[in-house]
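Still learning folds. Look over my entry:

…
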Amino acid sequence: MAKAKSQKSLDKWTGQEWEYAGKEKKSVYLPKKKIERLKSTSSGRSKLASANKKKRRATKKGEQYSRHGLASGTSGADEVLMKNMRMKRG
């Protein structure tokens, strides 16, 4: 049986190597390749520093998640999938 598009996306997401961009649990958690791309340019390093700052600030407030903007494109477009599922239900 062929896999649905959402399942293929999940397989791709699961196959990625994920890690913290700096000190463990005090920095953003992203795919390893994305971290390497960001660290390779000065603008990428500044984006990563800004995201880590937002993450630390959110953690200090006791929040589990932070909106830093770097994780876009890594979730398998879960919001779009959820929207499509709701539309199919009725």
